[in-house]
Structures are given as C-alpha cells and as structure tokens.
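2024-03-11 09:14:02 DEBUG pipeline.ingest accepted 1 chain
2024-03-11 09:14:02 DEBUG pipeline.ingest length=147
2024-03-11 09:14:03 DEBUG pipeline.predict start
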Amino acid sequence: MESTLHDFFKNQKIIFYDNFKKMLSDCDLMIAVGGDGTIIHCSRHAAEAGKPILGINVGRLGFVAGLETDELNKLENLFNGNYTLENRMMLEIKLQNNGKKETYFALNDAVVARGALSKIVDLTVSYKNKNVCSNKRTSFRSSSAYL
C-alpha cells in the first residue's frame, strides 16, 4: 500500500511503499476502488506492470468493475484461487513528439490534443502491426481527435 496511507492502517500487517513502480512490481494484482474512470486510469498502470486488476465500483455505473460494494465478501476468493481472469483488449499508443518516442496504454480510448488552438497533427493508426490509416498533414477543427 502507498506509504501516504500508513496512518489509516496502523498496527496492520501491510507493507507500505514510497515508490509506486516498486509496489506494482512486488504485488500479485492491483485493486482499484472507484468508478469507471478510476478503474480505467489504474488499468494503464496494471497493464504496464503486467498485473491483473480488480475494480471495485463505488461510482454510479461500474461497467468495467468486477465487484460492487455489496460483494466485498467475495474478495476472499482471491486468496483461495476461486476466480477467473478476463482478458480485455488494451490500446497501445506510440507517440513521437519532437524526436522523442513515448508509449502509453489505454483501456477504452485515447485522446490526441494539442491545446485550445487547432494544430496540424500527423496520425498513423495500426492494428496488430497492420496500417489501418494514415492521415498525414490533417488539420483538425476541434482541439482533440478521438481514436
């Protein structure tokens, strides 16, 4: 657990971490407590670390959550192996910006934005290493484009 939560869990058998990446590398799975937005955000970190994620919905919809708050007793299934993993497709976004290459992962969508003013953006979209489309020198009228 993150060390910032230590005061809330005194005298508990919990390992606390100051380094988030180290915590992810040491854990078996990630549990995200929140709404769909929180779970989707955490899924990026889980994917990068190669860890499964369990979402517990405390939001309104909970489309991507595995458990609702009235099902917390089912958490014991994690310890006795009574669960299945559901693989979901992740988007891998590779960005080259001023010669610097960056890679991001996303669960539902990716937004390409360059601020409030329209800019010229070069996009290449591929699926399973095959080019789907390439819109070189396309100018978007809005501030963002949804893939």
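2024-03-11 09:14:41 DEBUG pipeline.report The chain is about 20% helix and 35% strand.
2024-03-11 09:14:41 DEBUG pipeline.predict end
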